[in-house]
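Project outcomes to date are best conveyed with an example. Our students and postdoctoral researchers have been running inverse folding experiments weekly, and each run begins with a structure described purely in tokens. The record below, which covers 109 residues, was selected by the lab manager from last quarter's runs and is presented without edits.
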């Protein structure tokens, strides 16, 4: 899937550049569609459902848990409680984590 920011129309991407706060992880950012230095492969992600074997694979609001994995590099989107500085509008950092299975890489629908 390609993830588009509703407010700006920019596309979410990750690439092999160090994240601003967590230098061991990949940067996650948004860019205009068709940016000449950002190939389309930077924008493609896949959803990986985290399900129990006894439950069917269906999305249920406030109950479906999943990971978002970057198709090209294999990193998982991860978030922290720490916030970016002023230039990041004090938002939480989201970056690309190489380790699978961490609780910070699980998202809830």
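After processing, the design step wrote out the following sequence:
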């Amino acid at each position: 899937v390609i993830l588009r920011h509703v407010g700006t129309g920019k596309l979410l991407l990750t690439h092999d550049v160090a994240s601003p706060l967590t230098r061991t992880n990949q940067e996650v950012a948004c860019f205009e569609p068709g940016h000449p230095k950002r190939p389309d492969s930077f924008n493609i992600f896949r959803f990986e459902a985290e399900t129990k074997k006894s439950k069917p694979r269906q999305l249920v609001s406030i109950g479906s848990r999943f990971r978002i994995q970057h198709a090209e590099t294999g990193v998982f989107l991860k978030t922290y409680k720490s916030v970016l500085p002023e230039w990041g509008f004090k938002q939480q950092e989201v970056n690309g984590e190489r380790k699978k299975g961490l609780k910070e890489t699980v998202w809830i629908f």
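The chain has no helices and seven strands. Residues 74 and 98 are 7 Å apart (CA to CA). The training component of this project remains on track.
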